[in-house]
Amino acid sequence: MQETAARAGWRGVIEEYRRFLPVSEQTPVITMLEGGTPLIEAPRLSERVGARVWLKFEGLNPTCSFKDRGMTMAISKALERKAPAVICASTGNTSASAAAYAGRAGMTCAVLVPEGKIALGKMAQALAYGARVLEIRGNFDRALEIVRELGEKAGLEIVNSINPFRIQGQKTGAFEIVDVLGDAPDIHCIPVGNAGNITAYWKGYREYLEAGISTHTPRMLGFQAEGAAPLVHGHPIENPSTVATAIRIGNPASWKGAEEAISASSGAVNIVTDEEILAAQSLLATSEGVYCEPASAASVSGLLKFGVPEGSKVVCILTGHGLKDPDITIKSVPKPPVVDADYAAVCSALGL
Ligand code: AN7
Fold first, then answer.
1. pLDDT digits (tens, 9 = 90+) for 53-80
2. Which of 190, 197, 317 most suits a substitution to test ligand 1, by most atoms within 8 Å of the C-beta?
3. Which ranges of the chain have pLDDT less than 50?
4. CA distance to 17, 94, 156, 180, 286, per residue, from 176 (Å)
5. For 333, what's the count of Cα atoms within 13 Å in the CB-facing half-sphere?
6. Which of 8, 227, 249, 304 is least surrounded by Cβ atoms within 10 Å, i.e. has the fewest?
7. Which among 173, 164, 165, 98 has a CA at the least distance from the CA of 129?
8. Looking at ligand 1, which residue's alpha carbon is closest to its atom 18?
């Protein structure tokens, strides 16, 4: 099985999928061996929805989100062109990944994040990896506008997913799924924020079909948070709001890519509420042992809410690790009781 080989000697997405990627012998490969993430069967979830469900746990990448697949490409290509510095706007995960890969490549990295709206773990990462972090008094969409301007006027290398190398790297997630399952799944569930990832997965599935490696492509089901669902409403959202800060985006850059993926695959884009997102996050942690961040749980909350045909093979992308955003869990579960350090007190608290 491919899976066994993957675990034994995984070389990172550029080396593993070189023939599908725009790299040459001259490209310096900046990698922390991202990708090769597990596709975990979800028996409880499968039983609940009457289908076979797998979780692609992207939280197990080097900076704990799917962004590393695209960042290994974006930073390697930036280094190849000898760009001195990179910049991105971010709801958190892109900044963590850019900071890590740029630092490894010896490049300066600046990141613009919305003030007070990025999860604790992501901020800690961006700072730890040595990025120049600016919190802006505005949301992600505004930060991305400024980044575009910096790209044009100041010549900085943009590593948001408007950089086509990001999409190229991220499409490898689809390759891995097909490599492990032996063919494409029937249905692919994914959270949608800036819409780069749904665009990338669709590209990957199409390329594997064209190469004769798979026999079909899946229906692409995208899910957006209720307060940040521009694709569902069909227009940008001025002041997006959701507990899932990673997907608090009102004007997705890859809008057209998402529309193409959804229409060409007979898919759909739908809304899940913050409550549904948090319930799915908790269900995954308590019954499948997989702790993902709220935005990631949007894929599973959508699956639970809208259902799928009986017996379908379904893959849900869990885009980031739960530890990225510990605050939300601490806030949403009951505080653990504090008891005396004494046998009887512990027994009594446990009801024994
Ligand atoms: C965990 O980090 O946009 O639809 O700036 O971090 O490709 O944007 C993050 C997005 C889903 C949405 N899940 O993916 C950023 C950023 C997690 C994320 C998404 C993001 P896209």
1. 999 999 999 999 999 999 999 999 999 9
2. 197
3. 1
4. 10, 21, 32, 6, 26
5. 14
6. 8
7. 98
8. 246
Predicted local confidence at residue 84, as pLDDT: 87
262's CB contacts (< 8 A; 6+ apart) are 198, 220, 222, 268, 269
Instruction: Record the pTM.
Output: 0.96
Residues 6+ apart with CB under 8 A from 174: 184, 200, 201, 202, 203, 204, 205, 208
Other CB atoms closer than 10 Å to residue 255's CB: what's the count? 15
Cα dihedral across residues 181, 267, 277, 193: positive or negative: positive
Which ligand 1 atom is nearest residue 293's CA?
1
Structure tokens at 327: 């605050």
Backbone angles phi, psi at 253, to 5 degrees: -65, -35
The residue written with tokens 């593993």 in the block is 16
Q: Are 290 and 284 in contact (CB under 8 A)?
A: yes
* Residues whose beta carbon lies within 6 Å of some atom of ligand 1: 65, 90-94, 161, 191-197, 246-247, 293, 295-296, 319-320
Q: What is the pLDDT of residue 87?
A: 98
According to the model, what pLDDT value does residue 1 have?
Answer: 44
> In this structure, are residues 295 and 324 in contact, taking their beta carbons and an 8 Å threshold?
no
CA of 31 to the centre of ligand 1 (A): 20
Cα(39)–Cα(315) distance, integer angstroms: 8
